[in-house]
Amino acid sequence: MALGAASLQDSSEQVTQLLVRWRDGDRKALDSLMPIVYSELRGMAHRYLQRERSDHTLQSTALVHEAYVRLIGQKLPEWQNRAHFFGVAARLMRQILVEYARGHQAAKRGGNACKVTIEEGSLMAQQADLDVVILDEALQDLAKLDEQQSRIVELRFFGGLSIDDTSEVLGISPATVSREWSTARIWLHREISRRAPA
């Protein structure tokens, strides 16, 4: 095993151990965990906000802090590993962005106020601008049809998780993640195109 891979595995194991201790009520474990995962959470938030409109007032740090507050305020799951933690963080950030977008749209009386940019290979290359509320509604409908595909999109698109990390969180093979990711992107492209205002 290469030195870098060993270091990454050690870090991942350390995060998993701290998550388990935090879940078991050790507040000091959370205090030790946050400096380790903060930069990755901030990177995740930055990727989300890069897809938002250029005049977006929510900043990466504020998104991380809001996700953190929600994370410590909820009933903690049985943490499986580092990837599971980032999957939960991805879901929280998605909820925050959707709530923010809905509030912004309500303030502007509707319209296309909150859009995210879809990058090549992320979700659908043909769609340049995408309303985050429309995406969320489409993902909710996809979850009714196929919960696993919806979770894969959430983890890959919102969480920025790799195919391997996504497979680890969901307990399925990387090949299944790739196949379901492709199918979900096609379905979402069709649904979002249908729902987008003319």
Give the SSE layout.
Layout: H1 3-23, H2 27-50, H3 60-73, H4 82-107, E1 115-117, E2 129-131, H5 132-145, H6 147-158, H7 163-170, H8 174-195
Antiparallel strand pairs: 1-2
Helix pairs in contact: 1-2, 2-3, 2-4, 3-4, 5-6, 5-8, 6-8, 7-8
Q: What would you say this structure looks like, in words?
A:
With 198 residues, the protein is mainly alpha-helical. It has one domain. The protein has helices at residues 3-23, 27-50, 60-73, 82-107, 132-145, 147-158, 163-170, 174-195; strands at residues 115-117, 129-131. Helix 2 crosses helix 4. The termini are far apart.
Number of strands: 2
Radius of gyration: 17 Å
Low-confidence stretches: 1-8, 109-129
Shape: globular
Task: Provide the structure class.
Answer: mainly alpha
Strand content: under 5%
TL;DR of this structure?
By secondary structure, the protein is mainly α.
Keywords:
198 residues; mainly alpha; two-stranded antiparallel sheet; 8 helices; 2 strands; disordered N terminus
